[in-house]
Specification:
InterPro entries: Bulb-type_lectin_dom, Bulb-type_lectin_dom_sf, Kinase-like_dom_sf, Pan_app, Prot_kinase_dom, Protein_kinase_ATP_BS, S_locus_glycoprot_dom, Ser/Thr_kinase_AS. Belongs to the protein kinase superfamily. Ser/Thr protein kinase family. One of its GO terms (biological process) is recognition of pollen. By secondary structure, this protein is of the alpha+beta class. The chain has five domains: 52 residues, no CATH class; 125 residues, Bulb-type lectin domain (Agglutinin, subunit A); 152 residues, Hepatocyte Growth Factor, CATH 3.50.4.10; 97 residues, Phosphorylase Kinase, domain 1 (2-Layer Sandwich), CATH 3.30.200.20; 245 residues, Transferase(Phosphotransferase), domain 1 (Orthogonal Bundle), CATH 1.10.510. It is built from 17 helices and 39 strands. The strands form ten sheets. Strands 16, 17, 20, 21, 22, 23, 24, 25 and 26 form a nine-stranded mixed beta sheet that branches. A seven-stranded mixed beta sheet has the order 27-28-32-33-31-30-29. A four-stranded antiparallel beta sheet has the order 4-13-14-15, with no helix packed on it. Helix 12 crosses helix 15. The longest helix is centred in the last third of the chain and has 21 residues. The C terminus is likely disordered.
């Protein structure tokens, strides 16, 4: 193909000799496939655009791995809005039935799996593995799938009445969630033009690219840093406080005991570009900073860090409270020497300590005798579970604590301290704060902040001395609990599987904000999730089927437990109880049948709420719960998806009937449905005549708002 000047603008590597044809014709099909054929009416295709996608994927085309050549066919984004050459992002199939978005050949985001959503179909045979997709809105739907230059994969549908493309689905859902969208030292924020801005002391690397929505070049320093050991105080680098942020990638934790030591550690290494000292924990960053996000003023989950800047960039430092000047000693800039120094300080402090508690990293190492005093010899028991018993205590400064005496801990002290420090470094508004620990002989204890409103089970099931939780509070507890679990599964350096999600492990602070408790303890007692587990650890009624099916445990086991707990948010009672005549009352089955029949979900609601609930939120929770308890873990949503659904960012489709619940329906003469009257007549009336096929209309829990 050539332009008016005779210059080729497009060609294939296909020649007449290689094709064996002298009458090659080009055909543009109704499906959008541009093909070269051996003759006008020939069925032989010599070359087709469906096998060579650029940034656009059409229904019927494949995102494929050719097993014979071991070659893949990726989608690649444009460089910018004017330049269709290869950009920073690509979508490529991996040999594990999933597709990944790549950023400059660094994989980071699972885009879709063979069971991810109803748009996609995965095929695997001896010659190839591939995804195809379809959008079934109407018979005449025209759609396209794009690897956008924003780093998102997007599905569009053509609206002929408006003569415009409508967005149906995207991943990630929000642009600011895209990996390294704004490049090095860029900041992603909802309020900035084109989403991206620069950190203080930095300016746009390429204004032209930036204006064309190519932010991959990021930002550059306005002035070079001065890392010379002989630099004067006026020339030394400074640190600026950056507040209310989501931290950059790839932080490194250091065992230091003060903000001053954390500052000195960063300044003494020329490659260190930022540090933070939050909750008595020191984190430092080396090299370029990526994925920095600025949160809104109303967002309470923001964190702070200190950005290294040249002295010449910071004017009139004496009047700026957010600038810190550090005078560094003659500390070597090598990490090895720095670690030796910190280890020496730690050893010296250990030997010099004469009090009963010492600081280790971000945690306090308590003496056992002090915890006995604080808890009055463990006299006030708050509760207990699979990991041990919990007692109330009070520290000398009058602050209340909860002390958990761990059971069945066989780890040595060094390994125990390592695991505990890992737990202590996990900070989230919906996770219980671990303040310290005790490790003396065979005694292993954990010290947490005390939650004045106790555990969720008391307010749902035993509420003799407490008011009924209204619907708004229940919904917020469900949403915030999901956020805490999503953080454990998706935001921590290593995925943390809880293994025992239930109302007893959801604690409530003075404002009824939920805090997930006991996270990280499964690994502490020896759970190895890289292999199939031979013993269960959890609570009957919340355990996923895979605990007894002989497959490896994943984060989806927590999703199942969370779903079972959601049913109890609705009913205000345990999912499974025995009636006076010995029959089983099982609430999830009633919910599933109600949804399938299109019945009034307010009938499911805790009677103490007197039907005072948002019906849209109630529908959302019931559907999410049914998706979470699917038999196959691949059919369950991730906790991140659950959060988006509960936040209203994603709609949730009609759930399929889990096999376990279907079996209960098929044998319901032995079941009394969980109604408030518990009458046998009402039980019989709820029998479902809906076929299993109609209950399994969709394979995915979520769809975008545009799919309504």
């Amino acid at each position: 193909m050539i332009n008016d000047s005779g210059v080729p603008v497009w060609s294939t590597n296909l020649t007449a000799s290689s094709s064996g044809s002298s009458s090659t014709v080009a055909v543009l099909g109704d499906d959008g496939n541009f093909a070269l054929k051996d003759g006008l009416n020939s069925s032989v295709t010599l070359w087709q655009s469906f096998n060579h996608p650029t940034d656009t994927w059409l229904p019927g085309a494949k995102i494929m791995i050719d097993k014979r050549t071991n070659m893949s066919q990726p989608l690649t984004s444009w460089k910018n809005v004017e330049d269709p050459s290869t950009g920073s992002f690509s979508l490529e199939l991996k040999p594990i039935s999933e597709s990944l978005i790549w950023w400059r050949r660094n994989s980071f985001y699972p885009a879709m799996t063979s069971n991810y959503t109803n748009h996609f179909k995965y095929v695997d045979n001896e010659n190839e593995s591939y995804f195809t997709y379809s959008v079934k809105i109407s018979a005449n739907t025209i759609s396209r799938f794009v690897m956008d230059l924003s780093g998102q994969i997007k599905v569009y549908s053509w609206l002929s009445s408006f003569q415009a493309w409508s967005l149906l689905w995207s991943q990630p859902w929000q642009t600011r969630e895209v990996y390294r969208l704004c490049g090095p030292f860029g900041v992603c924020t909802k309020t900035a033009p084109n989403f991206c801005s620069c950190l203080p002391g930095f300016s746009i690397s390429s204004v032209r690219d930036w204006n064309l929505s190519d932010w991959s070049g990021g930002c550059k320093r306005n002035s070079d840093l001065n890392c010379a050991a002989n630099a004067s105080n006026a020339e030394r680098d400074r640190f600026s406080l950056i507040s209310n942020m989501i931290w950059p990638d790839d932080r490194i934790s250091l065992d230091v005991w003060s903000n001053t030591e954390c500052q000195a550690a960063c300044l003494s290494n020329c490659s260190c570009t930022a540090y933070s000292f939050e909750s008595n924990a020191c984190s430092i960053w080396f090299g370029d900073l990526f994925n920095v996000q600025q949160l809104s003023q109303n967002d309470t989950e923001g964190l702070s860090f200190y950005l290294r800047r040249a002295a010449s960039d910071v004017q009139d430092t004496s009047k700026k409270s957010n600038v810190i000047v550090i005078v560094a000693g003659s500390v070597s800039s090598t990490v090895t020497i720095l670690e030796i120094v910190f280890f020496g300080i730690w050893r010296w402090r250990r030997r010099a300590t004469v009090t009963s508690k010492t600081v280790e990293g971000s945690l306090i190492a308590f003496a056992y005798r002090d915890l006995k005093v604080a808890t009055k010899n463990f006299s006030e028991k708050l509760g207990g579970g699979g990991f041990g018993s919990v007692f109330k205590g009070t520290l000398p400064d009058s602050s209340p604590i909860a002390v958990k005496k761990l059971e069945s801990i066989s780890q040595g002290e060094k390994q125990f301290r390592t695991e505990v420090n890992t737990i202590g470094n996990i900070q989230h508004v919906n996770l219980v704060w671990l303040r310290g620990f005790c490790s003396e002989g065979d005694k292993r204890l954990l010290v947490y902040s005390f939650m004045p409103n106790g555990s969720l089970d008391y307010h749902l099931f035993r509420r003799k001395d407490s008011k009924t939780l209204d619907w708004k509070t229940r919904y917020q507890i469900a949403l915030r609990t999901a956020r805490g679990l999503a953080y454990l599964h998706e935001k921590c350096r290593d995925c943390i599987i809880h293994c025992d999600i239930k109302p007893e492990n959801i604690l409530l602070d003075a404002e009824f904000c939920p805090k997930v408790a006991d996270f990280g303890l499964a690994k502490l007692v020896g759970r190895d999730f890289s292999r199939v587990l031979t013993t269960m650890r959890g609570t009957r009624g919340y355990l996923a089927p895979e605990w007894i099916s002989g497959v490896a445990i994943t984060a989806k086991a927590d999703v199942y437990s969370y779903g079972m707990m959601l049913f109890e948010f609705v009913s205000g009672r345990r999912n499974s109880e025995l009636s006076e005549d010995g029959a089983v009352k099982f609430f999830p089955t009633w919910v599933a049948s109600k949804i399938a029949e299109g019945g009034d979900l307010l009938d499911l609601l805790d009677r103490d709420l007197e039907t005072n609930a948002d019906t849209e939120e109630l529908t959302r929770i019931c559907r999410v719960a049914c998706w979470c308890v699917q038999d196959e873990e691949t059919h369950r949503p991730s906790m991140g998806q659950v959060v988006q659904i509960l936040e209203g960012l994603l709609d949730v489709n009609l759930p399929r009937m889990p096999r376990a619940l279907q079996l209960l329906l098929d044998n319901q003469e032995h079941i009394v449905f969980f109604t408030e009257s518990s009458s046998s007549n009402q039980s019989a009336q709820t029998k479902s005549n809906t076929s299993t096929a109609s209950l399994q209309k969709q394979n995915s829990p979520s769809s975008t708002k545009s799919e309504r």
